[in-house]
Amino acid sequence: MINKDITSYSSIFSKDYTELRVQENRQITIGLLNGDVIRNDSSSSSGVSSRTFKDGNWGFSSNPNISDKSVQSVIKSSTDNVKFLNKRDNNRCGILLPESFANHEFDHSSKKEKNNQKYWIEYLKSLDDYIKTNHSKVTSRTLILNSLDMEKNLLTATGSTSFSMTPKSHLYIVLSAEKDGNPIEFMDVYGGLGQLDDVFNNPKNHFKAIDKQVGYLIDKANGIHPDAGKKEVVLDGDLAGILAHEAVGHTTEADLVLGGSVAGDNMNKQVSSSLISLVDFANVYQGEICPVPVYVDDEGVKSEDVTIIKDGILKSFMHNKDTSRHFETNPTGNARAYAFSDEPLIRMRNTAILPGKSKLDDMIASVEDGYYLMKTGNGQADSTSEFMFAVTMGYEIKNGKLGRAIQDTTISGVAFDMLKTVSMISDDMKWTSAGMCGKKQPMAVGMGGPAIKCQINIGGR
Amino acid sequence: MIKINAENQFNQLTENIFNDKRGDEFITLSFGGENSHFLRFSQSKIRQNGRVHDASLSISLIYDNRKCSGNIPITGDLDNDILAAKNELCRLRDEVIQLPVDPFLVIPNKVEISNNVNKGSLLSSKDTPDSIILAMEGVDIAGIWASGFIFSGNANSLGQKHWFSTETFSLDCSLITKDERMVKATFSDSKWNQNKYEKFMNDSKQKLYYMEKESIKIKPGNYRTYIASAGVKDLLDMLSWNGISEASIQRGQSALCNMKNEKSQLSPCFSLAEDFRTGLVPKFNGLGEISSETLPLIHNGILKNTLISSQTAKEYKLNSNYASAGEYIRSPYMSGGNLKEDDVLKEIDRGLYLGNLHYLNWSDNIGGRITGMTRYACFWVEDGKIVAPIENMRFDDSLYNFFGNNLESVNENVIFNPEIGTYNNRSLGGTYCPGILLSSFSLTL
Question: With an 8 Å Cβ cutoff, is B70 touching chain A?
Fold first, then answer.
């Protein structure tokens, strides 16, 4: 636990705009391979950083030591660093950042008594035993339990203060079966916001989901390779979520817009079917806390929801203070840093396509010849909105009915083209926060989506 | 922490922790960190000037065939750091006795000592802006400069001890045309040479000349293609992800299963080795095991060795070649061929020159198919001359084609492509590889 009270350090800020962040990240990873413990690690990384802005330039400094002397030293160093730049280049003299003021404390620590490593290893072993006993067709079992606590304490020269303890915990289950001597693998992920003790209560709670996962695995082992080409598909919520994040979200981060992303030329233009609305939620969706809630960002700005696409029209970008100044708009509270030694960058929080009015069953029934694509392994997208995602589970759809499962494949396309083909959206919503987004730094993010019916390029063999 | 006391601090930490060791315990310490200067710039102007100090200590405790490990930040305050490390060791002692036996536990039995200090000749942070910015004039350039001291140590309670430190710099930038087409450029070394830098920047600016031309859209299909060294590096990187790892092969999840099990071969022009003679990365792994200076992986198209960690060796009853736990290639070196740089365009004749590839991913891991984008300096070539840049295209092709049947020749120049990642810490090392000329390369979208 880091020291919560850092407000007294404001007295040693220079007269320039300064941010001070004290942060600790803690991780636990436990892994089991076919019942044997293969990983049991815990780690913590902590330190202090300071960032100072003056006349259009930034100075930054960080140190793992959180003593008073070290805090003073990083504040002085970040101030000296920006002064050094300003001596060389005073062309942007007088540029000011938008002022912001926010105070918030968010502590999602578990109130329960903390279980030890032995408990969690036994927890995984119970799951492993269940799979081994009940599913003889499973030839290999890997179970990974991972938790990440991000604890931040922020103070800015404009008086913003924020303490946040944002934990996430996930259980990754990777199962294999064999088909004609070849291994077929299927991974599913469980968990979300919270520390291990809050997210995982009883191994028995997972048994039903594991049975379902094994069912998918066996279907996949007997599955076919899909036909390559442009197909009519129903993308389930997991895939719609990653599409929202990777293929659309990144293009609307204002720093990438300044770097030439395709979204830059499309503000207030039709970029998708009018059925599509896409929002980067700060912390709450329909009264429920999001998987990665951000109340105040790492520049001390109150985090607001950003409606990126409204009824098919591109409406907003995500901003930090610097880009909001450039675009003459308000900062949106998207500036986030992963580690104490990282500078805040524009990052998404909880990006989701909003649900529609259709029922998933009706969407599948409306497809004559296509695919229902359910799970994704990984993926990435370009600032052109060109994307490629791995698909790890899906079924063919023939005459409106689910047919044979398909083996691993990929989907690709240009998001702003593909989203124009969306013709139905389901009325439900799935959130996930298992992966980490990469943009020079890793970052915990939430992604959400309903099922969407669209046309997409599917890889074959 | 400053560079002169990092090794001393590691020595003090190891001495104090190992003095606390109890009879049957086996302790491994891994120490790493950096002291780096960063500059972020856009429109050829520096916009952020930063300094990062970071260090951490990982403690691994083995007791009664059980193992656990923990990682703590190292602040530079020695007394507090020793206390924190001892507290972490106590926590691990409480934990380890609760754990089940690890059947794949590896306890190194060799006692080796190494000390590899690579002193660089770096610009001072004060001199850096003037030294790098002047050559950028006249062009819109955005990117990151990183420079400084990186260190890594490993010791165990048997007396094994390794130290590696290096001083390096890297400039990772994009040169941007008025209509936002880009040339990617990376400059890295351990010794600053102003003339070399200015030549690099001038060469990069020259590439922009071709990017100013109106781009052409080519149709999906198979094209005669030259992939420059930076693109080949991206293809080789994929072999560290369900590729050359013996564990991946044993689990049937590797693109090289066909080479291992079916004896498929790549082109005789293709040779790849793990080569530590470059001295860019530590030769020791997380267990403190020292790899051999060179290990041929694929020689003249034939799979000679996979990367086998001691854990994998124990699990599958093989001999370890002291690979890292993740069995990725730490110091890749692809051999050059006989294609002269000056002949590249002439040899393409009609086809594609791909300067960089981007966002690679397996589209069929077991089948060896990789997909990704063409990006930055990629051109259409006719009659041995660059005609125009091409619009970004998606490729999807198998390594059994581009490193196999379709590999026509390999450039004689083996170029160093530095790792410029900043995830958690500044990355070390890089990939030595030449460009490759392919009779056919598949663009799909």
Answer: yes
